[in-house]
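[09:14] KT: can someone run the structure on this one? pasting the chain below
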Amino acid sequence: MTKKILILDDDLTFSETLGRSFERRGFTSFVTQTIAEAESILNEYKPHYAVIDLKIEQESGLHFLSILAIKSPDTKSVILTGYSSISTTVEAMKLGCVNYLCKPLNTDEILNALENINAIPDTPIIETPPSVNRLEWEHIQRVLTQNDGNISATAKALGMHRRTLQRKLQKKPVSR
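[09:31] RB: done, structure tokens below
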């Protein structure tokens, strides 16, 4: 039996390349760019795996995780993102995601994460605390998640101007 994989990412080039890569490994891949497209695939097929981008246009991949949990609870999923934060990681895990990965990565890394290969229980814990800038960035991400991605509501909750928040969100995440 051929395994099926659903890929939900608004970056057309990346998602199609990833889909072809999985097909070369013997998978049947369904490449989608919107949550609506992905949901229609779930109405017809029950994929074994799902690769979901955290940020899909103005929508959140976390929203799709909740749909996936209802329509195809046996599907193992991973979140891919360039905007990682502790709050979105925790939410993704609560919603049933098996792993949360930061881009860029390759097909083998995604497949290993889906199948939980190479999990290292003795991974060292970083001793240095995160910087104040990193904490600010994670707090913004947490409040953004609480407001379902609504920039205006998040800016109001944080007590800052909407444009200031948008500028902060356009920057890359601050490393530790």
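[09:33] KT: thanks! The first strand starts at residue 4 and ends at 8.
[09:34] RB: yep, looked fine to me
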